[in-house]
Amino acid sequence: MFTVTDEARKALDAHFEDRDLASIRIYLAPGGCSGPILALAMDNPTDEDSVLAADPYSFCINKDLLDKTGALTVDINCQGFVVESKNPLGGGGCGSCGGGCGN
Question: Whose CA, among 63, 89, 91, 98, lies 20 to 30 Å from 69?
Fold first, then answer.
């Protein structure tokens, strides 16, 4: 299952308001002490990708990565777009590197 929240869709609409639509890649990015995170970038799909439709938007993700993530939700918060997966890929959380979020 693939979902784009209404809030994320509004942000995408605003971003593409004066731009041509482009494919959006969901990829695994380094995430600091919390481990890798799913992120977004403009990119064209390849033969190794699955294409996920959220009309009028098109997202692509590596097939192997999609198998690991399970269901995905694209949302937005005060820091920008977030991609949540049914099967989290992250590490031990903020405190795992010895610092913690409050430091």
Answer: 98
Task: Report which secondary-structure segment, H or E, holds 68.
Answer: helix 63-69
**Domains of the chain and CATH, by start:** 2-86 (2.60.300.12)
For residue 76, with 0-12 CB atoms within 10 Å meaning exposed, 13-18 middle and 19 or more buried, which class applies?
middle
Count CB atoms within 10 A of the CB of residue 7: 13
